[in-house]
Design a protein that fits this description.
The protein has about 140 residues and is an all-alpha fold. The protein has one domain. The protein is built from four helices and no strands. Helix 1 packs across helix 2 and helix 1 packs across helix 4. The longest helix has about 45 residues. The chain is flat. The chain starts with a helix and ends with a helix.
């Protein structure tokens, strides 16, 4: 149980960090601004397409930020869960590490709210276990 809580805590922290970096980059990089600029003679399709393209760019940027943060922190999420991915035994360790960091980036970019919610559930479960143990003891 402790490995799972440690995994979720690290992934939630990486997710929060990646989200903060992405928000800062979103403010400073012009084509990532979420506010659509009204242009005359544009069709509704163009507006929807531009908004979708901005969202795709932001999700991709969040994945890249998560990968970079995982690489800086040297987080190997599948090894933390005692899982052996296919690429774990590749000859140059740089390849396996890069794929681990990319996996962490994908998990961080798209699983952030899920990690926060699950971590909260596990914390409450642990608190309940401790309170039951105190009552019995």
């Amino acid at each position: 149980m402790d490995e799972m809580i440690q995994f979720l805590a690290i992934m939630a922290a990486l997710s929060t960090g990646a989200q903060a970096v992405t928000q800062q980059m979103k403010k400073r990089i012009v084509f990532l601004h979420m506010q659509a600029k009204a242009k005359p003679n544009d069709s509704k399709f163009d507006e929807v397409y531009e908004e979708a393209l901005r969202r795709v760019n932001i999700h991709f940027l969040a994945g890249v930020n998560g990968t970079v943060l995982a690489a800086v922190a040297q987080v190997h999420p599948l090894q933390m869960l005692k899982l052996n991915p296919i690429w774990a035994n590749t000859t140059p360790p740089v390849v396996s590490n890069t794929l681990d960091y990319a996996a962490a980036g994908v998990l961080v970019a798209y699983g952030g709210p899920w990690f926060h919610d699950l971590l909260g559930v596990l914390r409450e479960y642990k608190v309940q276990l401790r309170s039951v143990a105190k009552v019995k003891g």
